[in-house]
Design goal:
15 helices, six-stranded mixed beta sheet, globular, alpha/beta, binds nicotinamide-adenine-dinucleotide, seven-stranded mixed beta sheet
């Protein structure tokens, strides 16, 4: 284990590390060992008010900064993320217990990519122009004002970057509240933005749990909330945000289908199913947790999967050889274990992968990944989001049947289809009720691809061009060339 153990965290308000002074405190544990790292106070309501005021002050200046200059600063910040990548990845591991290899290769990389992408896009912000006989009509693209981001604990740094980069590119102020379970890396992002040239107060971080989250969603000085978390929390946030009709982006949970037709190479199918379920210990919102395998192909799939299960290595999250880390918390581990018990009780047949590490990690929040065979659609493990390393394998006979069953869920985040049949790809991508469909791959999220769900998995998008529209508003301007119209 490495030695730079975090011993405190603070807010990031007006370009400074400011300790919270609320009466409410929260505890931060290292999930790999279960050790308490520190206990700290939340941001108080006064501190949140200060942050909102400071953000408005900074935003008034920032919105006038030319887009090419905004872009330059974001691109510089992306370069700094890459420069400090190792220390950011280490903070993510202390916070989440995920493997350092993932934090380095995915979390840091996709975070930097977001800043670079929106840095490059800033200059493209433009309105429309309509030349009418009686008038010139055009739209001005303007920032919303001050936006808040509320994050989940599974990708803390990436979430902070995916939300703040388009917001800042569009000329907004941004206040981020990370999950109280993973407060460390967002403050580092504040320092990076400052070093890159973002004015103090434009990007800020407030720490805490529900009270701090609600202080943001109910605050009349905040114009938008972009939320990542559970469906139930999302509904509460929508209700709270109605106080001043805030703009909303909702990135919520999922129970995504991964559908494998029998013309797929079994090795490819097995690789995809394992990655789609056990990456980040299964704590990925888009994971393909309902794996539908054609019934004639099950034996081939199963044997290819079994031949790869030896590659699953649970262990010290800081060890580069580890590819499955610990879950986020003791409570979450208990929840995931209760789902595994329910799968067993309902007759699913388990195959466990890897070994729980012992010694220094015996008290860590590890769960042995499990593949459940003999599942049916009515089982709790097949219906509900588990957010842990639990794969359910289901069999199907026909395309029509699997499409109907894949869509029989309140969620609609991701979906995967493996087949070489182009007509089938077209039918499936049209028929699947999800915000994203991956064909012959899974969970790949390039910046160019809009990311987000439909149905109860949410609305609005992250990444892609369209997200610029979610952080700006259009003002229509009519410049008359004609006499004033009036019946009076
Ligand atoms: P959560 O809903 O419990 O908490 C998310 C955030 O909301 C935390 O910062 C929390 O402090 C805050 N919060 C809780 N109650 C609040 C309230 N009433 N008002 C304002 N803020 C409040 O979710 P979680 O357990 O942190 O994350 C896991 C969930 O996130 C899963 O359902 C997962 O699918 C989802 N998720 C979705 C995406 C996506 O992009 N669609 C990505 C990652 C995670």
């Amino acid at each position: 284990m490495i030695n730079n153990k975090p011993t405190s965290v603070s807010n990031w308000i007006e370009g400074a590390r400011v300790p919270g002074n609320s009466e409410i405190s929260f505890k931060v544990h290292y999930p790999g060992t279960g050790e308490l790292l520190f206990e700290t106070r939340e941001a108080s309501l006064d501190q949140i008010d200060e942050a909102v005021t400071a953000s408005h002050r900074a935003q008034k200046v920032w919105k006038k900064v030319p887009t090419r200059e905004r872009g330059r600063i974001l691109i510089k910040a992306a370069q700094l993320i890459r420069k400090y990548g190792q220390s950011i990845a280490e903070l993510e591991v202390w916070d989440t217990g995920k493997p350092i290899s993932e934090a380095t290769e995915v979390d840091v990389v996709t975070a930097a990519d977001a800043l670079e992408y929106y840095g490059n896009l800033a200059v493209t912000l433009h309105g429309d122009y309509y030349s009418l006989e009686e008038a010139d009509v055009y739209t001005r693209v303007e920032p919303l004002g001050v936006c808040a981001g509320i994050g989940a604990w599974n990708y803390p740094f990436q979430i902070a970057c995916w939300k703040s980069a388009p917001a800042l590119a569009c000329g907004n102020g941004f206040i981020f509240k990370p999950s109280e379970l993973t407060p460390l890396s967002a403050v580092k992002l504040g320092e990076i933005y400052e070093e890159a040239g973002i004015p103090p107060g434009l990007f800020q971080v407030v720490q805490g749990a529900v009270t701090v989250g609600r202080a943001l969603t109910t605050h009349p000085g905040i114009q938008k909330v972009s939320f990542t978390g559970e469906v139930g929390t999302g509904k509460k946030i929508m209700a709270d945000s109605s106080v001043n009709l805030k703009h909303l982006t909702m990135e919520l949970g999922g129970k995504s289908p991964l559908i494998i037709f029998p013309d797929t190479d079994p090795e490819t199918a097995a690789k995809a199913a394992l990655a789609a379920n056990f990456y980040t210990q299964g704590e990925v919102c888009t994971n393909g947790t309902r794996v539908f395998v054609h019934e004639d192909y099950l034996a081939e799939f199963q044997s290819a999967l079994r031949s790869r299960t030896g590659n699953v290595v649970l262990g010290d999250p800081f060890d580069p050889a580890t590819n499955v880390g610990s879950l986020i918390s003791k409570e979450h581990r208990e929840l995931v274990l209760s789902y595994i018990r329910s799968g067993l009780d309902q007759g699913a047949k388990p195959e466990y992968l890897g070994e729980i590490p012992q010694g220094a990690f015996a008290e860590g929040y590890f769960v042995q990944p499990v593949v459940f065979y003999d599942c049916d659609d009515a089982m709790k493990i097949v219906q509900e989001e588990i957010f842990g390393p639990v794969m359910s394998v289901l069999t199907f006979k026909t395309e029509e049947e699997v499409l109907e069953r894949a869509n029989a869920t309140e969620f609609g985040l991701g979906a995967g289809v493996f087949t070489k049949d182009i007509s089938r790809i077209q039918r499936m991508t049209e028929g699947l009720e999800s915000g994203m469909v991956w064909v012959n791959n899974y969970n790949i999220t390039p910046m160019e691809m809009p990311f987000g769900g439909t149905k109860q998995s949410g609305f609005g998008k992250e990444n892609g061009l369209d997200t610029l529209n979610h952080y700006s508003k259009r003002k229509s301007v009519y410049v008359s060339k004609a006499d004033v119209f009036s019946p009076f």
